[in-house]
Amino acid sequence: MVNHRCLLKNEQNLVNKMIMKRFLSLKMFFESLLILxxxxxxxxxxxxxxxxxxxxxxxxxxxxxxxxxxxTGIPYLYEGELIIPEKVEYNGRMWTVVEIGLNAFSxxxxxxxxxNGYITTVGMYAFSWCDYLKEAxxxxxxxxxxxxxxxxxxxxxxxxxxxxxxYISDKVFTECPKLMSIYSLNATPxxxxxxxxxxxxxLNATLYVPKGCLEAYQNxxxxxxxxxxxxxxxxxxxxxxxxxxxxxxxxxxxxxxxxAPQKGLNIVMMSDGSKRxxxxx
Length: 281
Prior knowledge:
alpha/beta; nine-stranded mixed β-sheet
């Protein structure tokens, strides 16, 4: 005999779940819209080169890199590899960049980002909807990743998490279907919000942790959901993860000094004396 009451109850539960899922999607949409509106009514404090900045403290001469006041970054301006300046001079004052602000590079065409220098915080939606982003290098200066910082990066494949990272907020790496490799250099598992990753990422991505730290991550909330492997950190190129190492000069292939990234092959000089070849599209 078919229990019609049970069938009706199951159908009602299914309908309730569908309604709740749509409600949550709409809630996220309107929250994002509200944030964009709040950004649109604010403006940046100053501009140096291709970057826009807001003052955080006149006492400490600290600032955040932000968007141009239109709510997102500029797609055609930021493309290829993005290296954020460590310090910027404006009207005779030297400012230290310590944060990446709300929506700073959202929806831009960058393919790889290196976050180092003195930056401690990556703000909400900072790199969300970057459709071409494949790799994010979060250096050893960064302490926290705020809500939805890398949300909806459809082609993000690899993420490096520096040794100072202590907190990953909600939805930071949600809707990143191609994320397969996460390298954490912190011997102590960072605190993770329950919604920082999706179940599909737990199932498909591999988490790489420093040698000798496997047990710590296997016992840590949410990290333990990954397939975890150890790796030898001394054998990797840690230049881009180190504090205080940033771009100091940029040249074209024929040796001319560039004031800003230029299409084609750029030679980038780093503050530790190393050189990098960067293809700008």
